[in-house]
Amino acid sequence: MNTVVTCVNCGRQNRVPAAAEGRPRCGNCHQPLPWIADAGDDTFAEVAERARLPVLVDFWAQWCAPCRAVTPALEQLAHEMAGRVKLVKVDVDRAPALSQRFTITAVPTLMMLNEGRVVAQRAGAAPAPQLREWVEDTLRTPS
Description:
By secondary structure, the protein is an alpha/beta fold. 29% of the residues lie in helices and 27% in strands.
């Protein structure tokens, strides 16, 4: 499944697949594009665990107000950190096997994956600056 992303550098629209080798870049100006994808029980391995760059996983639910509140901050982070981080959103109600596998007991729960391994995890919503600091700290910490 592809998502259409507008390049913030040149304004050109680009199709970005949920799973691919490398990192998405604009077909026109070659600048990094934000990579935001959905995953479920059947697609998580391909979309998140096989990604070549660090993955921020958002376990969320449609009925969860804090989940909806944190979504804009996570999407902003994905744009700011284009080429450095991939955001993968997992709806826990549609992915019960993943929720069980990662013992998700509260939503939102955020996880950072590096080369398919969980390197950090936190539960609950937080303001954008706090989330940015958590992601940056996780990226700086050797895995």
